[in-house]
Recover the amino acids of this structure.
């Protein structure tokens, strides 16, 4: 499958490397096509401008700083039905509060003709670069929020390409919860806490009769 990335930073390189290894064709897109080409050469991809990457295939990874993401997207000509994978986080790095309360929804409103999927926002690029890893003996779960089931399933395939497990997390309206979770988790990590200790196993949380979905 052909995947374009909007951005040529660490997230685009980390995820793109694994997708190339899985047999996908990847184009790294950047405002500086020369830099994008350099990153692409390191992972066996091709490089180009962001406009080139936005038209490269039916899947586009949005790997730009959150503060410029919407502006860049509205200046591109994304094809209707494109699956746009949003891995951005918009929070204040001073106190780890949300700078934008619903980043994925804002993106969807800016480009309503594409299928926005929120994924890959809960971990740093190093987690994706070093994939697959086991954490307490189990592979990482990657929450996915989307309104389009087919788009969510497609992104689940990309998660599995890294050796991790896709975790359906509901509609795109729930992506704001993922974004808030990222802000909360990073704030805890930087003070030396461990967020894994915050959540009991499902059975312990709900008793012997977990709620149905």
């Amino acid at each position: 499958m052909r995947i374009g990335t909007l951005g040529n930073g660490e997230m685009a390189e980390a995820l793109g490397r694994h997708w190339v290894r899985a047999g996908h064709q990847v184009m790294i897109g950047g405002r500086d096509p020369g830099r994008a080409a350099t990153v692409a050469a390191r992972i066996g991809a091709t490089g180009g401008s962001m406009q080139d990457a936005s038209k490269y295939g039916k899947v586009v990874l949005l790997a730009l700083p959150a503060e410029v993401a919407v502006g860049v997207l509205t200046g591109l000509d994304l094809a209707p039905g494109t699956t746009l994978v949003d891995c951005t986080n918009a929070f204040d790095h001073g106190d780890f509060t949300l700078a934008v309360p619903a980043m994925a929804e804002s993106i969807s409103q800016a480009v309503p003709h594409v299928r926005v999927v929120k994924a890959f926002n809960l971990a740093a690029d190093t987690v994706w670069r070093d994939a697959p890893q086991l954490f307490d003996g189990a592979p990482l779960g990657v929450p996915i929020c989307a309104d389009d089931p087919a788009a969510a399933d497609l992104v689940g395939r990309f998660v599995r390409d890294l050796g991790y497990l896709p975790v359906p997390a509901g509609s795109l309206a729930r992506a704001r919860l993922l974004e808030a979770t990222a802000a909360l988790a990073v704030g805890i990590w930087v003070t030396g806490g461990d967020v894994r200790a915050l959540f009991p196993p499902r059975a312990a949380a709900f008793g012997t009769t977990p709620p149905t979905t």
